[in-house]
Amino acid sequence: MPALWIAHVTVTDAEAYGKYAELAGPAIAKHGGRFIARAGRFVQLEGKERPRNVVAWFPDVDTAVACYNSPDYQEALNHARGASERELMVVETSE
């Protein structure tokens, strides 16, 4: 079943986070992921609001998790640590 990678982010260092974004996109694509929502308009209805929200589609949960754990993504993530506050989850779709 396909899976969605859902991130809620508050950027605290735009320069460092920009480097993360530059590296993360290719790492995600390398694992068959594609962005379906990235920093677009949103309406927070419940919970903690984060100004940046990203949703990426992956072929399945295992591939999304493998992407997260890959050396390419971990290199990108090193730039996000300390440059953002984030929550990230992978959710299997029902389709």
List the helices and strands and how they pair.
Layout: E1 3-11, H1 14-30, E2 34-38, E3 52-58, H2 61-69, H3 71-80, E4 84-92
Antiparallel strand pairs: 1-3, 1-4, 2-3
Helix pairs in contact: 1-3
Describe the structure.
There is one protein chain. With 95 residues, the protein is of the alpha+beta class. The protein is 38% helix and 32% strand. It has one domain (3-92): Alpha-Beta Plaits (2-Layer Sandwich). The protein contains 3 helices and 4 strands. The longest helix is centred in the first third of the chain and has 17 residues, at 14-30. The termini are close together. InterPro entries: Dimeric_a/b-barrel, DUF1330.
Quick structural summary:
The protein has 95 residues and is α+β, with helices and mostly antiparallel strands. It has helices spanning 14-30, 61-69, 71-80, and strands at 3-11, 34-38, 52-58, 84-92. It starts with a strand and ends with a strand.
